[in-house]
Protein backbone atom coordinates (compact mmCIF):
# COMPACT_ATOMS: atom_id res chain seq x y z
CA UNK A 1 0.00 0.00 0.00
CA UNK A 2 1.67 3.21 -1.17
CA UNK A 3 -0.26 6.18 0.21
CA UNK A 4 2.40 8.67 -0.83
CA UNK A 5 2.12 7.73 -4.51
CA UNK A 6 -1.65 7.16 -4.58
CA UNK A 7 -3.28 9.72 -2.27
CA UNK A 8 -6.37 10.07 -4.47
CA UNK A 9 -7.33 6.48 -3.67
CA UNK A 10 -7.13 6.94 0.10
CA UNK A 11 -10.88 6.91 0.72
CA UNK A 12 -11.30 3.75 -1.32
CA UNK A 13 -8.40 2.08 0.48
CA UNK A 14 -9.96 2.92 3.85
CA UNK A 15 -13.45 1.69 2.99
CA UNK A 16 -12.12 -1.62 1.64
CA UNK A 17 -9.91 -2.18 4.68
CA UNK A 18 -6.69 -2.14 2.67
CA UNK A 19 -5.32 0.92 4.48
CA UNK A 20 -4.42 0.11 8.07
CA UNK A 21 -3.98 2.92 10.60
CA UNK A 22 -1.89 2.72 13.78
CA UNK A 23 -2.72 5.20 16.54
CA UNK A 24 0.06 5.62 19.10
CA UNK A 25 -1.33 6.48 22.52
CA UNK A 26 -4.86 5.59 23.66
CA UNK A 27 -5.35 8.40 26.15
CA UNK A 28 -7.83 11.28 25.96
CA UNK A 29 -6.73 12.28 22.46
CA UNK A 30 -5.59 8.96 20.99
CA UNK A 31 -8.68 6.96 21.92
CA UNK A 32 -10.88 9.64 20.38
CA UNK A 33 -8.74 9.80 17.22
CA UNK A 34 -8.88 6.01 16.89
CA UNK A 35 -12.67 6.08 17.32
CA UNK A 36 -13.10 8.68 14.59
CA UNK A 37 -11.14 6.60 12.08
CA UNK A 38 -13.11 3.50 13.07
CA UNK A 39 -16.35 5.40 12.48
CA UNK A 40 -15.02 6.23 9.01
CA UNK A 41 -14.64 2.52 8.29
CA UNK A 42 -10.88 2.16 8.75
CA UNK A 43 -8.96 -0.78 10.18
CA UNK A 44 -7.16 0.57 13.27
CA UNK A 45 -4.40 -0.74 15.51
CA UNK A 46 -4.35 1.07 18.84
CA UNK A 47 -1.00 1.20 20.61
CA UNK A 48 -0.35 1.97 24.27
CA UNK A 49 2.44 1.05 26.67
CA UNK A 50 -0.12 0.35 29.42
CA UNK A 51 -1.30 -3.26 29.38
CA UNK A 52 -4.36 -2.19 31.36
CA UNK A 53 -5.34 0.40 28.73
CA UNK A 54 -4.76 -2.13 25.94
CA UNK A 55 -6.74 -4.85 27.69
CA UNK A 56 -9.65 -2.45 28.23
CA UNK A 57 -9.56 -1.32 24.59
CA UNK A 58 -9.53 -4.95 23.42
CA UNK A 59 -12.83 -5.37 25.26
CA UNK A 60 -14.29 -2.12 23.94
CA UNK A 61 -13.63 -0.05 27.06
CA UNK A 62 -11.65 3.12 27.80
CA UNK A 63 -10.60 5.06 30.87
CA UNK A 64 -11.47 8.48 29.45
CA UNK A 65 -15.28 8.64 29.52
CA UNK A 66 -15.47 10.35 26.13
CA UNK A 67 -18.90 10.04 24.44
CA UNK A 68 -19.22 7.49 21.58
CA UNK A 69 -15.62 6.21 21.85
CA UNK A 70 -16.43 2.88 23.48
CA UNK A 71 -19.33 2.37 21.08
CA UNK A 72 -16.96 2.84 18.12
CA UNK A 73 -14.49 0.38 19.65
CA UNK A 74 -17.14 -2.30 20.24
CA UNK A 75 -18.66 -2.07 16.77
CA UNK A 76 -15.23 -2.29 15.12
CA UNK A 77 -14.20 -5.26 17.29
CA UNK A 78 -17.25 -7.19 16.09
CA UNK A 79 -16.20 -6.51 12.50
CA UNK A 80 -12.56 -7.35 13.27
CA UNK A 81 -11.40 -3.84 12.32
CA UNK A 82 -9.85 -2.89 15.65
CA UNK A 83 -7.07 -4.36 17.73
CA UNK A 84 -5.06 -2.93 20.62
CA UNK A 85 -1.43 -3.86 21.31
CA UNK A 86 1.53 -2.87 23.47
CA UNK A 87 4.05 -3.62 20.69
CA UNK A 88 4.74 -0.35 18.80
CA UNK A 89 7.05 -1.94 16.21
CA UNK A 90 4.47 -4.57 15.26
CA UNK A 91 1.92 -1.80 14.81
CA UNK A 92 4.27 0.13 12.53
CA UNK A 93 5.11 -2.91 10.41
CA UNK A 94 1.42 -3.78 10.09
CA UNK A 95 0.13 -0.30 9.21
CA UNK A 96 0.39 2.22 6.39
CA UNK A 97 -0.63 5.39 8.22
CA UNK A 98 0.85 6.04 11.67
CA UNK A 99 -0.60 8.71 13.99
CA UNK A 100 1.42 9.88 17.01
CA UNK A 101 -0.93 11.19 19.71
CA UNK A 102 1.43 10.82 22.68
CA UNK A 103 1.27 13.72 25.18
CA UNK A 104 4.12 16.16 25.78
CA UNK A 105 4.53 17.28 29.37
CA UNK A 106 6.95 19.60 31.13
CA UNK A 107 10.20 18.76 32.86
CA UNK A 108 10.56 21.78 35.12
CA UNK A 109 9.48 24.40 32.53
CA UNK A 110 10.91 22.71 29.45
CA UNK A 111 9.12 20.43 26.99
CA UNK A 112 9.82 16.76 27.75
CA UNK A 113 10.14 15.07 24.34
CA UNK A 114 11.39 11.71 25.64
CA UNK A 115 8.15 9.86 24.80
CA UNK A 116 8.00 11.48 21.36
CA UNK A 117 11.53 10.29 20.60
CA UNK A 118 10.77 6.79 21.88
CA UNK A 119 7.64 6.43 19.74
CA UNK A 120 9.33 7.90 16.65
CA UNK A 121 12.12 5.33 17.05
CA UNK A 122 9.59 2.47 17.21
CA UNK A 123 7.67 3.72 14.20
CA UNK A 124 10.90 4.05 12.20
CA UNK A 125 11.74 0.39 12.85
CA UNK A 126 8.61 -0.66 10.99
CA UNK A 127 8.43 2.18 8.44
CA UNK A 128 7.96 1.09 4.81
CA UNK A 129 8.04 2.83 1.46
CA UNK A 130 4.77 4.62 0.78
CA UNK A 131 3.82 4.99 4.46
CA UNK A 132 2.73 8.30 5.98
CA UNK A 133 3.42 9.44 9.56
CA UNK A 134 1.21 12.04 11.25
CA UNK A 135 2.51 13.82 14.35
CA UNK A 136 -0.39 15.21 16.39
CA UNK A 137 1.05 16.32 19.74
CA UNK A 138 1.29 20.00 20.68
CA UNK A 139 5.00 20.82 20.76
CA UNK A 140 7.48 23.71 20.55
CA UNK A 141 7.58 24.90 16.90
CA UNK A 142 10.35 23.10 15.02
CA UNK A 143 9.98 19.75 16.84
CA UNK A 144 8.68 17.75 13.87
CA UNK A 145 11.55 18.75 11.59
CA UNK A 146 14.32 18.92 14.18
CA UNK A 147 13.44 15.91 16.36
CA UNK A 148 10.95 13.53 14.71
CA UNK A 149 12.19 13.65 11.10
CA UNK A 150 15.87 12.85 11.84
CA UNK A 151 14.86 9.84 13.96
CA UNK A 152 12.54 8.46 11.26
CA UNK A 153 15.13 8.84 8.49
CA UNK A 154 18.15 7.65 10.48
CA UNK A 155 16.51 4.54 11.94
CA UNK A 156 14.53 3.48 8.86
CA UNK A 157 17.16 4.29 6.27
CA UNK A 158 14.39 5.85 4.18
CA UNK A 159 14.11 9.38 2.83
CA UNK A 160 11.14 11.59 3.64
CA UNK A 161 9.17 12.89 0.63
CA UNK A 162 10.79 10.24 -1.56
CA UNK A 163 10.08 7.05 0.39
CA UNK A 164 7.59 8.10 3.06
CA UNK A 165 5.48 11.10 4.04
CA UNK A 166 5.52 13.15 7.25
CA UNK A 167 2.82 15.60 8.29
CA UNK A 168 1.94 17.57 11.39
CA UNK A 169 -1.69 18.01 12.37
CA UNK A 170 -2.54 19.30 15.86
CA UNK A 171 -5.39 17.84 17.86
CA UNK A 172 -8.15 20.41 18.29
CA UNK A 173 -10.57 18.92 20.78
CA UNK A 174 -12.47 19.99 23.87
CA UNK A 175 -12.74 17.21 26.41
CA UNK A 176 -16.24 15.78 26.54
CA UNK A 177 -17.00 16.38 22.85
CA UNK A 178 -13.81 15.14 21.14
CA UNK A 179 -15.43 13.14 18.34
CA UNK A 180 -17.80 15.97 17.48
CA UNK A 181 -14.90 18.44 17.36
CA UNK A 182 -12.78 16.27 15.05
CA UNK A 183 -15.58 15.33 12.69
CA UNK A 184 -17.79 18.41 12.59
CA UNK A 185 -16.79 21.43 14.64
CA UNK A 186 -13.42 22.57 13.28
CA UNK A 187 -11.36 22.23 10.11
CA UNK A 188 -8.24 20.08 10.45
CA UNK A 189 -4.85 21.82 10.25
CA UNK A 190 -2.25 20.01 8.12
CA UNK A 191 1.39 20.88 7.44
CA UNK A 192 3.73 18.69 5.41
CA UNK A 193 7.48 18.23 5.07
CA UNK A 194 6.98 18.75 1.34
CA UNK A 195 4.26 18.83 -1.32
CA UNK A 196 3.88 15.03 -1.55
CA UNK A 197 3.43 14.71 2.21
CA UNK A 198 1.01 17.62 2.29
CA UNK A 199 -1.12 16.19 -0.51
CA UNK A 200 -1.27 12.76 1.11
CA UNK A 201 -2.09 14.25 4.52
CA UNK A 202 -4.81 16.44 3.05
CA UNK A 203 -6.46 13.48 1.32
CA UNK A 204 -6.26 11.37 4.49
CA UNK A 205 -7.77 13.94 6.84
CA UNK A 206 -10.41 14.96 4.30
CA UNK A 207 -11.97 11.57 5.03
CA UNK A 208 -12.84 12.47 8.64
CA UNK A 209 -12.94 16.30 8.71
CA UNK A 210 -16.35 17.49 7.53
CA UNK A 211 -15.23 21.12 7.94
CA UNK A 212 -12.36 20.46 5.55
CA UNK A 213 -8.58 20.81 5.79
CA UNK A 214 -6.53 23.99 6.13
CA UNK A 215 -3.19 23.46 4.44
CA UNK A 216 -0.30 25.26 6.13
CA UNK A 217 2.72 26.49 4.19
CA UNK A 218 5.16 24.79 6.58
CA UNK A 219 5.06 22.28 9.41
CA UNK A 220 6.55 24.84 11.78
CA UNK A 221 3.65 27.19 11.03
CA UNK A 222 1.18 24.44 11.87
CA UNK A 223 2.99 23.75 15.15
CA UNK A 224 3.00 27.45 16.00
CA UNK A 225 -0.72 27.74 15.24
CA UNK A 226 -1.61 25.16 17.90
CA UNK A 227 0.55 26.83 20.54
CA UNK A 228 -1.15 30.15 19.69
CA UNK A 229 -4.57 28.63 20.42
CA UNK A 230 -3.55 27.59 23.93
CA UNK A 231 -1.73 30.81 24.77
CA UNK A 232 -4.69 32.91 23.59
CA UNK A 233 -6.91 31.19 26.14
CA UNK A 234 -4.35 31.37 28.95
CA UNK A 235 -3.73 35.09 28.41
CA UNK A 236 -7.42 35.92 28.24
CA UNK A 237 -8.21 33.92 31.36
CA UNK A 238 -5.39 35.80 33.08
CA UNK A 239 -6.96 39.10 31.99
CA UNK A 240 -10.26 38.03 33.54
CA UNK A 241 -8.46 37.01 36.74
CA UNK A 242 -6.65 40.35 36.90
CA UNK A 243 -9.88 42.28 36.35
CA UNK A 244 -11.80 40.25 38.91
CA UNK A 245 -9.25 41.10 41.62
CA UNK A 246 -9.68 44.80 40.78
CA UNK A 247 -13.45 44.41 40.95
CA UNK A 248 -13.20 42.70 44.34
CA UNK A 249 -11.18 45.63 45.71
CA UNK A 250 -13.58 48.18 44.23
CA UNK A 251 -16.65 46.43 45.63
CA UNK A 252 -18.00 45.70 42.15
CA UNK A 253 -19.85 42.60 40.98
CA UNK A 254 -17.50 41.39 38.23
CA UNK A 255 -20.05 39.02 36.68
CA UNK A 256 -22.52 41.85 36.13
CA UNK A 257 -19.79 43.94 34.47
CA UNK A 258 -18.60 40.99 32.41
CA UNK A 259 -22.09 40.25 31.10
CA UNK A 260 -22.56 43.84 30.00
CA UNK A 261 -19.06 44.04 28.46
CA UNK A 262 -19.61 40.91 26.41
CA UNK A 263 -22.78 42.32 24.89
CA UNK A 264 -20.38 44.28 22.67
CA UNK A 265 -19.28 41.96 19.81
CA UNK A 266 -15.62 42.94 20.01
CA UNK A 267 -15.35 41.99 23.68
CA UNK A 268 -15.03 38.41 24.89
CA UNK A 269 -14.01 38.49 28.53
CA UNK A 270 -13.29 34.96 29.74
CA UNK A 271 -14.33 33.56 33.12
CA UNK A 272 -12.10 34.01 36.17
CA UNK A 273 -11.71 31.23 38.70
CA UNK A 274 -9.55 29.17 41.04
CA UNK A 275 -6.96 28.56 38.32
CA UNK A 276 -6.22 26.97 34.96
CA UNK A 277 -5.70 23.21 34.71
CA UNK A 278 -5.55 20.33 32.28
CA UNK A 279 -2.72 18.97 30.16
CA UNK A 280 -3.00 21.79 27.61
CA UNK A 281 -3.46 25.43 28.59
CA UNK A 282 -1.03 25.54 31.54
CA UNK A 283 1.61 23.69 29.47
CA UNK A 284 1.66 25.26 25.99
CA UNK A 285 2.77 28.77 27.06
CA UNK A 286 6.01 27.28 28.35
CA UNK A 287 6.80 25.97 24.86
CA UNK A 288 6.78 29.50 23.48
CA UNK A 289 8.56 30.93 26.52
CA UNK A 290 11.29 28.31 26.07
CA UNK A 291 11.82 29.29 22.44
CA UNK A 292 11.53 33.04 23.06
CA UNK A 293 14.24 32.83 25.72
CA UNK A 294 16.56 31.06 23.26
CA UNK A 295 15.82 33.61 20.52
CA UNK A 296 15.94 36.53 22.97
CA UNK A 297 12.42 37.59 21.97
CA UNK A 298 10.14 39.21 24.57
CA UNK A 299 7.32 36.98 25.84
CA UNK A 300 6.28 39.22 28.71
CA UNK A 301 2.52 38.92 28.27
CA UNK A 302 2.68 35.12 28.06
CA UNK A 303 4.89 34.91 31.16
CA UNK A 304 2.72 37.33 33.14
CA UNK A 305 -0.43 35.42 32.24
CA UNK A 306 1.09 32.17 33.46
CA UNK A 307 2.08 33.77 36.74
CA UNK A 308 -1.34 35.37 37.29
CA UNK A 309 -3.19 32.11 36.64
CA UNK A 310 -0.83 30.03 38.76
CA UNK A 311 -1.45 32.30 41.77
CA UNK A 312 -5.26 32.17 41.60
CA UNK A 313 -5.65 29.14 43.93
CA UNK A 314 -3.78 31.08 46.65
CA UNK A 315 -5.95 34.17 46.06
CA UNK A 316 -9.22 32.23 46.21
CA UNK A 317 -8.25 30.33 49.36
CA UNK A 318 -7.32 33.63 51.02
CA UNK A 319 -10.78 35.01 50.19
CA UNK A 320 -12.47 31.83 51.38
CA UNK A 321 -10.63 31.82 54.69
CA UNK A 322 -11.60 35.48 55.24
CA UNK A 323 -15.21 34.37 54.85
CA UNK A 324 -14.58 31.65 57.41
CA UNK A 325 -13.21 34.17 59.91
CA UNK A 326 -16.40 36.23 59.51
CA UNK A 327 -18.29 33.26 60.87
CA UNK A 328 -16.11 33.48 63.96
CA UNK A 329 -13.99 30.42 63.20
CA UNK A 330 -10.27 29.95 62.77
CA UNK A 331 -8.77 28.12 59.81
CA UNK A 332 -6.79 25.94 62.22
CA UNK A 333 -8.60 22.60 62.61
CA UNK A 334 -11.60 23.80 60.61
CA UNK A 335 -13.09 21.24 58.23
CA UNK A 336 -13.21 22.45 54.63
CA UNK A 337 -15.12 20.67 51.85
CA UNK A 338 -13.55 21.26 48.44
CA UNK A 339 -16.10 20.56 45.72
CA UNK A 340 -14.37 19.40 42.56
CA UNK A 341 -11.00 17.75 41.91
CA UNK A 342 -11.18 17.65 38.09
CA UNK A 343 -9.58 20.56 36.26
CA UNK A 344 -12.85 21.45 34.51
CA UNK A 345 -16.55 20.83 34.97
CA UNK A 346 -18.19 17.74 33.53
CA UNK A 347 -15.00 15.66 33.16
CA UNK A 348 -12.97 13.27 35.33
CA UNK A 349 -9.56 14.53 34.16
CA UNK A 350 -7.52 15.82 37.11
CA UNK A 351 -4.27 16.56 35.28
CA UNK A 352 -2.69 19.79 36.60
CA UNK A 353 -5.98 20.70 38.26
CA UNK A 354 -5.79 23.91 40.33
CA UNK A 355 -7.80 22.05 42.97
CA UNK A 356 -4.55 20.43 44.13
CA UNK A 357 -3.11 23.87 44.88
CA UNK A 358 -6.32 24.87 46.65
CA UNK A 359 -6.01 21.77 48.84
CA UNK A 360 -2.35 22.39 49.66
CA UNK A 361 -3.08 26.02 50.58
CA UNK A 362 -5.82 24.86 52.96
CA UNK A 363 -3.57 22.23 54.54
CA UNK A 364 -0.85 24.84 55.04
CA UNK A 365 -3.42 26.99 56.85
CA UNK A 366 -4.10 24.13 59.26
CA UNK A 367 -7.44 23.05 57.81
CA UNK A 368 -8.74 19.53 57.62
CA UNK A 369 -9.86 18.83 54.02
CA UNK A 370 -12.39 16.55 52.38
CA UNK A 371 -12.80 16.55 48.59
CA UNK A 372 -15.93 15.71 46.63
CA UNK A 373 -16.06 14.97 42.92
CA UNK A 374 -18.93 13.22 41.13
CA UNK A 375 -16.62 11.88 38.41
CA UNK A 376 -13.41 10.95 40.28
CA UNK A 377 -13.36 7.79 42.42
CA UNK A 378 -9.72 7.62 43.44
CA UNK A 379 -6.60 9.74 43.16
CA UNK A 380 -3.03 8.93 44.12
CA UNK A 381 -1.86 12.57 44.13
CA UNK A 382 -3.92 13.64 47.14
CA UNK A 383 -2.00 13.90 50.44
CA UNK A 384 -2.90 11.08 52.86
CA UNK A 385 -4.89 13.21 55.35
CA UNK A 386 -7.27 14.29 52.58
CA UNK A 387 -10.43 12.25 52.03
CA UNK A 388 -11.94 11.88 48.54
CA UNK A 389 -15.60 10.99 48.24
CA UNK A 390 -18.46 10.85 45.74
CA UNK A 391 -20.95 11.28 48.59
CA UNK A 392 -21.87 14.98 48.74
CA UNK A 393 -23.64 14.63 52.09
CA UNK A 394 -20.51 13.10 53.60
CA UNK A 395 -18.42 16.01 52.28
CA UNK A 396 -20.78 18.68 53.60
CA UNK A 397 -21.55 17.07 56.97
CA UNK A 398 -19.78 18.97 59.75
CA UNK A 399 -17.92 21.26 57.34
CA UNK A 400 -17.14 24.79 58.47
CA UNK A 401 -16.44 26.01 54.93
CA UNK A 402 -17.30 24.86 51.42
CA UNK A 403 -15.22 25.91 48.41
CA UNK A 404 -16.53 25.38 44.88
CA UNK A 405 -13.27 24.63 43.05
CA UNK A 406 -14.60 23.02 39.85
CA UNK A 407 -17.60 24.09 37.79
CA UNK A 408 -19.30 20.69 37.66
CA UNK A 409 -22.93 21.11 36.52
CA UNK A 410 -24.13 19.14 39.55
CA UNK A 411 -22.97 21.94 41.85
CA UNK A 412 -25.15 24.54 40.14
CA UNK A 413 -28.18 22.46 41.12
CA UNK A 414 -27.42 22.24 44.85
CA UNK A 415 -30.19 23.73 46.98
CA UNK A 416 -28.59 26.43 49.18
CA UNK A 417 -30.43 24.94 52.18
CA UNK A 418 -28.21 21.88 51.83
CA UNK A 419 -25.26 23.97 53.04
CA UNK A 420 -27.05 24.80 56.28
CA UNK A 421 -25.06 27.36 58.27
CA UNK A 422 -21.80 26.45 56.54
CA UNK A 423 -19.89 29.31 54.92
CA UNK A 424 -19.77 28.89 51.12
CA UNK A 425 -17.15 30.33 48.77
CA UNK A 426 -17.86 30.03 45.04
CA UNK A 427 -14.50 29.95 43.27
CA UNK A 428 -16.05 29.48 39.83
CA UNK A 429 -18.92 31.95 39.79
CA UNK A 430 -21.53 29.25 39.13
CA UNK A 431 -23.91 29.75 42.06
CA UNK A 432 -26.80 32.25 42.18
CA UNK A 433 -25.94 34.49 45.14
CA UNK A 434 -29.52 35.82 45.32
CA UNK A 435 -30.71 32.38 46.50
CA UNK A 436 -28.49 32.37 49.59
CA UNK A 437 -30.40 35.02 51.51
CA UNK A 438 -28.85 35.46 54.96
CA UNK A 439 -26.48 32.50 54.57
CA UNK A 440 -22.77 33.27 54.75
CA UNK A 441 -21.85 33.30 51.05
CA UNK A 442 -19.16 34.87 48.94
CA UNK A 443 -17.28 34.09 45.76
CA UNK A 444 -14.83 35.32 43.23
CA UNK A 445 -16.09 38.57 41.71
CA UNK A 446 -19.03 38.72 44.13
CA UNK A 447 -18.15 41.85 46.07
Task: Report on this structure.
- By secondary structure, this protein is an alpha/beta fold.
- It has three domains: 211 residues, NAD(P)-binding Rossmann-like Domain (Rossmann fold); 83 residues, N-(1-d-carboxylethyl)-l-norvaline Dehydrogenase, domain 2; 133 residues, 3-Layer(aba) Sandwich (Rossmann fold).
- It contains 17 helices and 16 strands.
- The strands form three sheets. An eight-stranded mixed β-sheet has the order 3-2-1-4-7-8-9-10, with helices on both faces. Strands 13-12-11-14-15-16 form a six-stranded parallel β-sheet.
- Strand 7, helix 7 and strand 8 form a beta-alpha-beta unit.
- Helix 2 crosses helix 4, helix 6 packs parallel to helix 7 and helix 10 packs across helix 12.
- The longest helix is centred in the middle third of the chain and has 32 residues.
- The chain is elongated.
Radius of gyration from the alpha-carbon trace, in angstroms: 24 Å
Specify the CATH architecture of the largest domain: 3-Layer(aba) Sandwich
- Per the principal axes of the C-alpha atoms, what is the gross shape? elongated
Question: Hey, roughly how much beta strand do the residues contain?
Answer: 5-15%
- Beta strands, count: 16
What is the assigned CATH homologous superfamily of the largest domain? NAD(P)-binding Rossmann-like Domain
**Largest sheet, described in full?**
8 strands, mixed
Question: Could you estimate the helical fraction of the residues in percent?
Answer: 40-55%
Strand order within the widest beta sheet: 3-2-1-4-7-8-9-10
CATH class division of the largest domain: Alpha Beta
Number of helices: 17
Termini separation comes to 65 Å
Q: Could you name the ranges where pLDDT drops below 50 across 5 or more consecutive residues? A: none
Mean pLDDT: 95
What name is given to the CATH topology of the largest domain? Answer: Rossmann fold
SS content category: alpha/beta
Count of folded domains? 3
Amino acid sequence: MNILSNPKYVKKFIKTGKLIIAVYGLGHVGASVAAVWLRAGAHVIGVDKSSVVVNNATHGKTQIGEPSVEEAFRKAILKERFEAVTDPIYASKSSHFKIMTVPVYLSDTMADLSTVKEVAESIAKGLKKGDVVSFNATVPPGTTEEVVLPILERTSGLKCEIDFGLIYTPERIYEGRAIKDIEDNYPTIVGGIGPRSLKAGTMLYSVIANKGVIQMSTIKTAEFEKVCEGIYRDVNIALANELVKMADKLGINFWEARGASNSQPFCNLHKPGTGVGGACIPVYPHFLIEISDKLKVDSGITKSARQINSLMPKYCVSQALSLLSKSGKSSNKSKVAVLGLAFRGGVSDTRLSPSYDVIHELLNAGCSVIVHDPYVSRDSELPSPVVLTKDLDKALNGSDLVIIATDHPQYTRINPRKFGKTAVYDGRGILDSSKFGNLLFSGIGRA
